[in-house]
Amino acid sequence: MIVIAIGQGLLSITAYLDAYYQVEPRTAEYGNLIPLRQFDTKNREFRVAAAQVDINYKQGNFAALVSPWIGDNSDVLERTNPKHNDVLDHFAQAYVTVERLDVGKFYSWCGYESPESRLSDCYSRGLLYTLAEPVWHFGLRYAWNLNPGWNGSFYLVPAWNQSESPTESVGAAAQIHRKFGSATDVTIGYMRSEEGDSSPNAFGGYGGIGFPKPGSSRVGMFDLIATHVASKSLRLVFNADYGMASEGANSGVWLGAAAYAIYTTADKWQIVGRAESFADRSGNRVGVPASLFEVTLTVSHNSDGIIKRLEIRHDRANHGLFAGEDHQTTVSLSLGVTWQALR
């Protein structure tokens, strides 16, 4: 990380590279694509998921973050954005902060996992992240604190994964965080917005949410995240989502839950187990009504800004959603490098 003093402020620059190689053994059926994944979608190919630079400036109560990026992750999100060739697609985040107010593009408040693999415990993003939740928003975010035990944030944003609303409406979201003692944190959030579009995005879905049918619907989204530090080495996490669309062709409900156990050793090894269940009752998220389940085991080592991961994941569904089969198993090797050559 480079830190430069500019007047009364500080400019910091960090570079990050994320790459992976993944195998699903049934090559003949799969070709080079892994279905129902958010970012790690390629089979038997070495891929650069993201090459990202974070440029952060801070002076007093003013701050700005700009994160240009390239790679598979940015390509995926660009294709889900109904506004093709949006300049925002070239930035993971880009916003300014005045006091507690953020204005611009930022990662979604919803869910436990992150668009950046270095901020997630498993390399592959789970079913909830991929199917149940938004990835990013453009708009206003305001953070507040009542006392040391209570804080939260409020959002005004157009919709999921896009910078403009298809109906010219404004969505709103709120999130409340409560700390219980020194070991347990609970965060609850809700978002209400108009989602969908009359024209498909590059993936064939409608709106940044990716509905299977044209038209808009009113969407409500609940999110719960609970974390508990069981010991110096063990951390437990629970994440649950409930989404409901009404007043349109894409009316329906989706819901899911994920549980994580993260064990970290003194020599910077980490073992993560994740189990998830997801139900798409009306086919709004996967195209047909379906129930899915996945388990993931991730072993990683993090030292000097370099994260090395080996991950095994098994998915099951009650339909042939995986190249005609009701299950799939993947094995991946990944490498994440954060450049911190100069401090």
Give the key terms:
single chain, 343 residues, mainly beta, 3 helices, 17 strands
Brief write-up:
By secondary structure, the chain is mainly beta. The protein contains 3 helices and 17 strands.
What do you see in this structure?
Helices cover 6% and strands 57% of the residues. The chain contains three helices and 17 strands. It has a 16-stranded antiparallel barrel with strand order 2-3-4-5-6-7-8-9-10-11-12-13-14-15-16-17. The chain is globular, with a radius of gyration of 20 Å. The termini are close together. The mean pLDDT is 90.
How many beta-strand segments? Answer: 17
Weakly predicted, low-confidence segments: none
Shape: globular
What are the secondary-structure elements, in order, as H or E?
EEHEEHEEHEEEEEEEEEEE
Measured by DSSP, the beta-strand proportion falls in over 45%
Gyration radius from CA atoms, angstroms: 20 Å
